[in-house]
């Protein structure tokens, strides 16, 4: 085991620590699973014997990413994804902590299932895994789940998956009750009645394709309702996936009111738009749907300004049987955990966002919101660290993906930069050579 | 041996609709009078004649065992003719029907009507339509004055006082008429009142009731002299107000461990009926520091005191 966990010195690196707004050339020393030092000129002389010395040649060293929204199929849909396969994909994408979702079978709505998830992940995953638990029993939206006991068992937040809790009374009581336990509620905001039979963003493009659209208002109305309830209850709330400027202004107002409100955007909505649906590409069928280009641009601007706090993958593995169907009949969802960071680098290379701001939304902010270690390079913190090559161009080939399912909207995409090393708790779990 | 009645306390109002509106002296007067009835009730000869010839109707729109039995015994021991009317609440509609019932009963010339109703304010509405005395035996989530009086009597007999004590009321404050009446009474007599519950079971504005609000047992029970547990209705523990019975018991149940947060000589109370293993564990409910059975005994005495005090103001008294 000693060789497994021998100290690592990353030299000649560009060290970016979004938790402390640091960006400097230097070295980073890891020993015993902990970051010892991050500074200029540690040098090979001052490190413990047996240290693995890695010359980063100017590449970026950053905190490992925390993916706040990734579906893993355990228990119940192991054919779609397991903790083993999801964690391999995560490691290759620079994600050192996966926050898995409760819409499993059975749902993660009892402490015993939380316990199962944590044990399975401990035995089979190569990155950290923390479950979100169901906000309501069976994710049915009518009875609140055991928020106190689930949190004590290890659930890091509470969500109803990709379905809104339509009953405002249930939501009010859940927010009220969760506040006593300082539990975070993560809510997918889409009014199911307004979604109706909609399968993509409402507008000209949907009309031309002859597909039924979903209005942006479906998302904004539910978010607006939730903000009123947060104001009423004082609960801690996180919007699971915002996609349009109308939602952003609701969010802005709530933050100005001083509500404990934060929000995520998925990597898909930040880097793709409705035109990517093209000729009925089902891998681009998502909930909420991909929006118009001006919506995407507004979302990126909100990420850059910090209004949107977190970027997540919304990783949702679907096999060919649920995707190789007419667009309207196909399941929504795309995998993303492995491609999230490099897709985000597109925004950096296009000058739409600073690298440090992107990394903050991928690592520091989600860890802070969930109360998890990680997301920082502060000496003494857990050694969840990644090395990023910003410059090498390459083409995504779905067959190289580690995930069990290959439903990526980035198949054959030209990308620039990639993760070359992922270190979890001081141990290298992925290396690109 | 017959006990000579010393107290000549008279309640200045015709009805007892709530603790709200009673003065400190009136509460103490009722408790003193009730204290005398405790002694009477422990004799073989429990019967008195102060209500002889009077008709008492127990009108219960909501099922009750102990309160109804307690009022029935109280009336009978004072010599009244007692009639019980338990109305299936589903067959009775609010509003006009309630008033019609009141008018009908009124025509039969009772002297005292004891009313329990599932709607807050229903007892007061009925009292306005009736000539005789009305005693509130619990209206919705509003008041249950005789319960608060019997709780106060129980505390006073065991602690020697009420003023200065720390009394913690735990559980479903939102729906509890017992909590409301107790908060008012205990504050009037100078106790320090705390409530402990999850936020979903606390009414908005509760902090303006003159109570200290806590959301966990350790904080709420610290240095408490009296721990008063409330019943949690089963329909409220399945995800609507609290997630489950298990979770409620884990965080808000009184057991030997949580009871230890209170003072070593703290006493525990419960208005009944108990959900054993949910809001209260048997080891505490049946333990040496439990006053739960004594509360039931005090109930009869307090109701006798209320009937007696009201009867002294009745016409022809």
Low-confidence stretches of chain B: none
Q: What is the tally of helical segments of chain B?
A: 11
Provide the gyration radius of chain B in Å. Answer: 19 Å
Query: Structural class given helices, strands, pairing of chain A?
Result: alpha/beta
Description:
Chain A is an alpha/beta fold and 433 residues long. Chain A is built from 13 helices and 19 strands. In chain A, strands 1, 2, 3, 4, 5, 17, 18 and 19 form an 8-stranded mixed β-sheet that branches. In chain A, helix 7 runs parallel beside helix 8 and helix 12 packs across helix 13. Chain B has 11 helices and 9 strands. In chain B, strands 7-6-5-8-9 form a 5-stranded parallel β-sheet. A 4-stranded parallel β-sheet of chain B has the order 2-1-3-4, with helices on both faces. The longest helix of chain B is centred in the last third of the chain and has 20 residues. Chain B is globular and about 55 Å long. The mean pLDDT of chain B is 92.
């Amino acid at each position: 085991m000693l060789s497994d966990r021998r100290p690592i010195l990353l030299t000649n690196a560009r060290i970016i620590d979004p938790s402390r707004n640091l960006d400097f050339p230097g070295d980073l020393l890891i020993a015993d699973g902990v970051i010892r030092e991050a500074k200029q000129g540690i040098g090979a002389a001052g490190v413990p014997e047996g240290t693995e010395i890695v010359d980063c040649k100017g590449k970026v060293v950053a905190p490992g990413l925390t993916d706040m929204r990734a579906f893993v199929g355990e228990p119940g849909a192991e054919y779609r994804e397991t903790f083993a396969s999801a964690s391999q994909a995560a490691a290759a994408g620079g994600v050192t902590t996966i926050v898995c979702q409760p819409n499993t079978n059975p749902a993660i709505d009892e402490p015993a299932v939380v316990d199962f998830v944590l044990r399975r992940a401990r035995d089979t995953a190569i990155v950290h895994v923390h479950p979100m638990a169901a906000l309501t029993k069976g994710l049915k939206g009518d009875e609140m789940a055991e928020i106190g006991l689930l949190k004590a068992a290890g659930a890091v937040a509470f969500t109803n998956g990709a379905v809104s809790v339509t009953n405002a009374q249930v939501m009010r009581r859940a927010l009220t009750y969760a506040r006593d336990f300082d539990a975070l509620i993560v809510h997918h905001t889409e009014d199911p009645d307004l979604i109706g039979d909609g399968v993509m963003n409402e507008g000209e493009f949907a009309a031309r394709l002859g597909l039924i659209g979903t209005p942006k208002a479906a998302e904004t109305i539910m978010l607006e309702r939730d903000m009123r309830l947060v104001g009423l209850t004082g609960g801690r709330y996180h919007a699971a996936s915002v996609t349009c400027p109308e939602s952003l202004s609701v969010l802005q107002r709530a933050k100005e009111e001083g509500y404990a409100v934060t929000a995520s955007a998925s990597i898909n909505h930040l880097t793709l738009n409705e035109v990517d649906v093209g000729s009925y590409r089902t891998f681009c069928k998502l909930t909420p749907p991909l929006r118009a280009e001006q919506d995407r641009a507004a979302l990126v601007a909100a990420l850059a300004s910090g209004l949107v706090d977190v970027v997540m993958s919304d990783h949702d593995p679907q096999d060919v049987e649920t995707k190789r169907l007419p667009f309207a009949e196909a399941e929504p969802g795309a995998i993303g955990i492995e491609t999230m960071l490099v897709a985000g680098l597109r925004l950096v290379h296009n000058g739409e966002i600073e690298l440090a701001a992107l990394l903050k939304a991928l690592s520091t902010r989600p860890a802070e919101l969930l109360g998890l270690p990680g997301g920082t390079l502060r000496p003494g913190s857990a050694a969840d660290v990644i090395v990023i090559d910003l410059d090498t161009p390459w083409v995504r080939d779905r067959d190289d993906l580690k995930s069990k399912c290959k439903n990526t909207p980035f198949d054959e995409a030209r990308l620039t930069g990639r993760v070359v090393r992922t270190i979890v708790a001081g141990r290298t779990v992925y290396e690109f050579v | 041996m017959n006990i000579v009645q010393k107290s000549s306390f008279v309640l200045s109002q015709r009805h007892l609709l709530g603790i709200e509106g009673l003065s400190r002296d009136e509460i103490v007067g009722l408790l003193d009078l009730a204290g005398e009835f405790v002694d009477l009730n422990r004799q073989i000869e429990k019967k008195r004649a102060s209500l002889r010839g009077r008709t008492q109707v127990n009108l219960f729109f909501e099922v009750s065992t102990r309160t109804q039995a307690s009022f029935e015994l109280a009336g009978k021991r004072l010599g009244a003719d007692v009639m019980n009317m338990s109305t299936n609440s589903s067959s009775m509609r609010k509003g006009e029907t309630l008033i019609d019932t009141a008018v009908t009963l009124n025509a039969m010339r009772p002297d005292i009507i004891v009313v329990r109703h599932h709607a807050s304010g229903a007892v007061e509405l009925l009292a306005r339509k009736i000539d005789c005395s009305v005693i509130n035996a619990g209206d919705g989530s509003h008041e249950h004055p005789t319960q608060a009086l019997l709780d106060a009597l129980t505390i006073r007999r065991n602690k020697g006082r009420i003023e200065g004590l720390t009394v913690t009321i735990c559980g479903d404050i939102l729906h509890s008429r017992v909590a409301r009446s107790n908060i008012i009474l205990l504050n009037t007599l100078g106790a320090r009142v705390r409530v402990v519950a999850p936020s979903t079971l606390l009414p908005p504005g509760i902090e303006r009731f003159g109570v200290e609000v806590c959301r966990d047992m350790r904080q709420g029970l610290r240095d408490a002299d009296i721990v008063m547990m409330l019943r949690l209705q089963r329909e409220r523990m399945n995800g609507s107000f609290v997630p489950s019975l298990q979770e409620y018991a884990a965080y808000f149940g009184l057991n030997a461990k949580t009871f230890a947060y209170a003072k070593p000589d703290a006493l525990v109370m419960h208005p009944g009926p108990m959900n054993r293993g949910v809001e209260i564990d048997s080891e505490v409910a049946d333990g040496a520091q439990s006053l739960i059975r004594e509360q039931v005994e005090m109930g009869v005495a307090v109701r006798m005191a209320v009937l007696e005090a009201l009867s002294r103001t009745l016409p022809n008294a």
